[in-house]
Amino acid sequence: AKAERALRAALEASERAAVSLSSLFIESSAAERRAAGLDRRLRALEEELARSAAARALLAAELRDLEASHASDLRAADEERARALREAIEGHQSQEGALLEEARRLEAERNALTAQLAEIGARRRAESERYEAQRAEVQARLDAAEDTRGRTVARLEDALRRNAADRQAALDAMETESRSFELAILQRDAELAALKGDLTLAQRKALRTKLLAGVTAVKHGRKGVPHRRHVRCSRDLRRLEWARLGDTGSPSRRPSIAAAEILAIHTSWQPPKRSML
Fold it and tell me: What is the pLDDT of residue 276?
């Protein structure tokens, strides 16, 4: 029971680590998409700045040529053109200043996202290590259970070889212990299937585990007073068996009824009262 509780705790811890890893992956993907969007916007700003600077350089060159050719006496048209060139240059300078400010803001946001991605990456690595450690612990406990079962079977087989007189008792004990290990393995498989998302398989195995484990029920026979019996399904699930509480005898000697012979199942059934006359 202690080993089973430890295995269940390890499975639950592994499941929590898997959920945490999934959440970190989603968070990391969202941050990477935001960072990619910022990179595209920064590249667009850089291209726009380059175009504005190139246009401003052409305007400045044209203004210098105009001023050099008419340094002493500018005609009215030339003065109008020079004024338009200066205004255009100032417009480009203003636009470039706004673009640079936006680029600095985006760069700061990109740096913050880079730091966030680094922090998420560190958390993902830590969670991945924790998940792998939990998986290794689960596997180690499963291996230990299998090893214990193997040693138990070997010990029972050795007892059978040493003492032929105890053969039947040893076989019965092996059957009981084998059933216990089978139930534990079935429950383990159901929990592992649930951890992987295969809930339908886990539910079927959990149901089989319950049917094989059985329950304690009050049996009302045709004669005599009601008495408590351990009721369960046979290993092939084709028969319903019952036996005295604590009976570890061979299943083949237990009274049973074929499942196909059961006509109906009534819940909350009360036996007819016997007459006191």
Answer: 37
